[in-house]
Amino acid sequence: MCGIVGYIGDKKAYPILIKGLSRLEYRGYDSAGIALLENGTNLNVYKRQGKVIDLTEFVDGHSTEGTVGIGHTRWATHGLPNDVNAHPHCSGDGSIALVHNGIIENYDILKKELIKRGHEFKSETDTEVLVHLIEDIKEKSGVSLVEAVRIALNEVHGAYAIVVVSTEDPDKIIAAKKSSPLVIGMGEDEYYLASDATPIVEYTKNVVYLEDEQIAIIDRKNGLRIISISNKEISPYVQELEMQLEELEKGGYEHFMLKEIYEQPRAIHDSFRGRLDAKSGRVSLGGIKDYEEQIAKADRIIIIACGTSWHAALVAEYYFEDLARIPVEVEYASEFRYRNPIINKNDVVIAISQSGETADTLAALKMAKEQGATLLGIVNVVGSTISRVTDAGSYTHAGPEIGVASTKAFTTQLVVLALMALAIGKRKGTIADKKFQLLLDELESLPEKIEELLKSDDYIRGVAEIYKDAQNALYLGRGTSYPIALEGALKLKEISYIHAEGYPAAEMKHGPIALIDENMPVFVVAAHGEHYEKVVSNIQEVKARKGKIIGIVSKGDTAVKDIADHIIEIPKSDEFIVPILATIPLQLISYHIAVMRGCNVDQPRNLAKSVTVE
Ligand code: M6R
After folding, report:
1. Is 205 a catalytic residue?
2. Which of 131, 17, 119 is nearest to 72 (CA)?
3. Which domain holds residue 120?
């Protein structure tokens, strides 16, 4: 977590850094800070608990001069979110300032050593150790700042993306990364640094993604130079950004989450554009074309992910097993990597991640790679680490997702996974032609169906109004709708702080049924399909215990309508497509409830968009 920014050029750094931090606030928002080099001699450091807006209020009236600076927005790992623990952190003599995203795992040993050598620490953070270590190496060995950073990075264990400035070298910015992302924007005699490209895109489209254990030295006169931490020269690889600035704005919506829910028809269309042609019965994912044979012959597919992406993996289990007849195991990346799992060369490991930076998913992938598996990625953020470490993969093309609660990233993941399963099923001959064609048609009609569904938003807001004060909620579904129950519950709890549980509908009677009384709203995905009658029976069981039923049903449904307290209709579709459609009213319910409860929808408490700590 945490977002870091840096700037060196002819412009005033302060507004650029603040704007950049606001764009990165989704990565952490419990405190923020900046350091500005004024006239190359003064290092002005301002930091504050709270959001970037609190920082700007604090800075108001102080000097914001300087054309070189760094900034940070924090998601606390070591030490409370307060002014002292906020970044930047400075060397003892105040000449060096550093911002950091990641965790220095051996900070404790290093700190004890540094204290013995006379260093005084102000904060409880692991980061402060790094800046003292750099200072210590500089003093002890008389080396340049760059060399001191390089030596220090060889001594630390863990993950880091850092940006460093110093009064001793005021025309330089030094940055480095390992396991946490860092992008450098290349302008005309100016350079932008950030955790992702969103703060950079409005200034330049030319970027360099720093690789692990690389150090960037940006000199006002001599430009960008990259070396490895073992001191080898590396030629920068400049890439062009595809991102558009408008994608990062709210575009008239009250919240990014709502905008992103409404963007789903477009996002889903982009996720299958050029890949699906229902008319000619064709599905083809360019990114995995060369690996299709290998996937088709795989002994097993292991899907690793976290959070919402893990729910997409659960749906994909149905897709791959049913359509392509390949056994699938779905794993929480954070459990899988610590379990000494059995991975074979004939296994295909698929990582699903919106950000492409989730630390546990990344670490699980690396472990699978060491054991010889083929790695595929289904990722939204173009150029992200997971997209680069996998052998092949498919982008979801949802566009930037800023709201911390994942919405369009999820539904586009489902579309890409469905396309992948269909392509492999077709190749293997495990899917009947009629079913194949039906699913292609259904996928192609999704944007239109979702447009239709979004017209019920006012009605859905009315349903949300009735349940906004609930203390608990239950979400039920069977088959491909069970992961949607989990996703619905996650959405509600993360943005409205209402306790919610997702369950396979049939499992309810094995325990959770004890929770049901007249105060318990129970959201049931009960669209037409193989499990419909059974789900109707489960609804009866809830009703018999006076629970309140909100049924997500197929248009024209009558059986659930007769017993439910409320129904929300989704367009009729095949069971494989239901998860994508049924997700949307659940997203809207959570959104409206959270707004009605006065919660910060886009930046829920304690969360961050990109979880780059383990
Ligand atoms: O970027 P990723 O898809 O790897 O992120 C995984 C989870 O952190 C993420 O889905 C999280 O659960 C969201 N807050 C859910 O809305």
Report:
1. no
2. 17
3. 3-246
For the chain, the domain total comes to 3
Same domain, 232 and 354: no
CATH of the domain at 413: 3.40.50.10490
Q: Which of 111, 177, 493, 609 is catalytic?
A: 609
Answer whether 406 contacts ligand 1 (Cβ < 6 A): yes
- Identify whether residues 80 and 172 lie together within a single domain: yes
Looking at the structure, tell me whether residues 487 and 431 fall in a common domain: no
- Cα–Cα distance measured from residue 492 to residue 307, given in angstroms and rounded to the nearest whole number: 13
Domain shared by 396 and 424, yes or no:
yes
Task: Check if 13 has its Cβ closer than 6 Å to any atom of ligand 1.
Answer: no
Query: Euclidean distance between the first and final Cα of the chain, in Å?
Result: 10
Pocket of ligand 1, candidates 354, 365, 490, 610: which has the most ligand atoms within 8 Å of its Cβ, to mutate? Answer: 354
Q: Which residues of the chain have pLDDT under 50?
A: none
> Which is the closest atom of ligand 1 to the Cα of 307?
12
Question: Closest Cα to atom 9, ligand 1: which residue?
Answer: 307
Find, among 518, 544, 254, the residue nearest to 536 by Cα.
Answer: 544
How is residue 300 annotated by DSSP?
E
Residues 65 and 136 placed together within one structural domain of the fold: yes
Counting from 1 in the atom list of ligand 1, the atom nearest the Cα of 308 is 10
264 and 158 within one domain: no
Distance between Cα 26 and ligand 1 center (Å):
12
Note if 599 is an active site residue: no
Nearest CA to ligand 1 atom 11: 307
Give one DSSP letter per residue of 348-411, joined into a string.
Answer: EEEEEESSS--HHHHHHHHHHHHTT-EEEEEESSTT-HHHHHSSEEEE-------SSS-SHHHH
Q: Is the pTM of this model over 0.85?
A: no
Collapsing DSSP to helix, strand or coil, 44 comes out as: strand
Q: What would the DSSP string read from start to end of 534-586?
A: HHHHHHHHHHTTTPEEEEEEETT--HHHHH-SEEEEE----TTTHHHHHHHHH
Q: Which of 199, 214, 246 is the last residue of a domain?
A: 246
d(CA 306, ligand 1 centre) in Å: 6
Whole-number pLDDT of residue 295? 96
Identify whether residues 234 and 260 lie together within a single domain: no
Reported as a single tens digit per residue, the pLDDT across 179-235 is 888 999 999 999 999 999 999 999 999 999 999 999 999 999 999 999 999 999 999
Based on the domain organization, do 378 and 413 belong to the same domain? yes
Domain boundary residue among 393, 427, 444? 444
